[in-house]
Amino acid sequence: MTTTATATQQFMTTEQLLKDWQGHRNLTRRVIDAFPEKELFEFSIGGMRPFAKMAVELIMIGGTALKGIVENKTDAYNEEGFNPTTKAEILKKWDEETEVINHYFRQISEERFQETFNLFGEYEFPVYENILYFVDNEIHHRAQGYVYLRALGMEPPFFWERF
């Protein structure tokens, strides 16, 4: 009997994962920018939050969570401390957090992606699952932004143009 060894190749590198996430972030930034100022902070449908509130949530998760992973800190999630009143403030903070994400993401070793981490002291999953949650959460909220823009009679950015 003969056995054949098959080499397994990695599906995606960590750098590809970061590029994918940043592609989503680029598109979400364009959605934020597509909103008229007033509607960004006030418009909602069916009791959902205005898109500015959703954007603040996304801003406060990514970089903060990655810093916690790198530093092994499980501080509770907190949106306090960033209360923008203009679209420009949101976009500026978005860009700053993009750099924070890049900085901390690249400090996570390949091995750490498989380690369990108690994100914000609440969600205990492997690091890679936490990161996929950040992307999923962003896609979810961005879709809400798309609905808002369409309800306002505006064409949102094409969802496939992420870079």
TrEMBL record:
Keyword Metal-binding: yes
Listed InterPro entries: DinB, DinB/YfiT-like
Ligand binding (a divalent metal cation): H141
Keywords per UniProt: Metal-binding
The keyword Metal-binding belongs to this UniProt entry's keyword annotation: yes
Example GO molecular function: metal ion binding
Alphabetical list of SUPFAM superfamilies matching this protein: DinB/YfiT-like putative metalloenzymes
Homology family: Belongs to the DinB family.
Protein name: Uncharacterized damage-inducible protein DinB (Forms a four-helix bundle)
Organism: Chryseobacterium ureilyticum
Phylogenetic classification of the source organism: Bacteria, Pseudomonadati, Bacteroidota, Flavobacteriia, Flavobacteriales
